[in-house]
Amino acid sequence: MFYRVVKRLMDIAAGILGILIFSIPMAVVYTALKLDNPGPSVFVRVRLGRGGKRFRMYKFASMITRTEEEDKKFIEHWKKEDPELWEKYKTNNFKLEDDPRITKLGKVIRKYSLDELPQFFNVLKGEMSLVGPRAYFPEELEEYVREHPRAKKDVDLILTVKPGITGVWQVSGRSNTSFENRIKIDVGYASRKSLLEDIRIILKTPFAVFRGKGAY
């Protein structure tokens, strides 16, 4: 209980400070995306929060697909037209360095995690935390459990904590690790969660962001 209360107070402070500190960078990115594409500059997609509760997570639009409906249609087309690339996408942590959806501007903002800045609003709303596992798509975990039934306990454990803007996975190579290893990393965090662990991750985050390692 103490951990949850203090963590929530930290998240409220982080959400407010994050929005204030990054308000100018967010305005610049938003404007640049608008000039690049007249569509929505903020991409909203359903993710899983604590307890498996679904919420709408905010990100700056880094892809040619600017809505959830467009993205789902693109993925269905992708599965049929290029199954090999789709399989590579699945096995590579549901990410690709050469993802056909990512725009040139999108590559830049993803490299330095600028696309994640709107998530401070999710933190302020209580849907996310500053530190936690990466927010999973419902279909990611559904497919993983379907293929690895024994992993359901691990998935349930991960979902006992809120997803975070940063976390162990984000400061440990990000997309350079496999999806299965990412699950193990998030299970480890959920098992040993503590304020000291959160502070350690927060301190490591700026270095991980500036390196841009595994960010795509």
Structural write-up:
The chain has 216 residues and is mainly α. The chain has one domain (2-210). It is 56% helix and 9% strand. It has a two-stranded antiparallel ribbon with strand order 1-2. The chain starts with a helix and ends in a 5-residue tail after the last helix.
Which tags fit this structure?
216 residues; mainly alpha; two-stranded antiparallel ribbon; two-stranded parallel ribbon; 56% helix; globular
Which class do the helix and strand fractions yield? mainly alpha
Helix content bin: 55-70%
| Cα separation of the termini | 36 Å
Radius of gyration: 17 Å
What percentage of amino acids are in beta strands?
Answer: 5-15%
User: Number of domains in the coordinates?
Assistant: 1
**Parts with pLDDT < 50 across at least 5 consecutive residues:** none
Number of strands: 4
What is the general shape? globular
The topology string of helices and strands comes to HHEEHHHHEHHEHH
Mean pLDDT: 89
Describe the main β-sheet briefly: 2 strands, antiparallel
Strand order of the largest sheet: 1-2
SS summary, helix count: 10
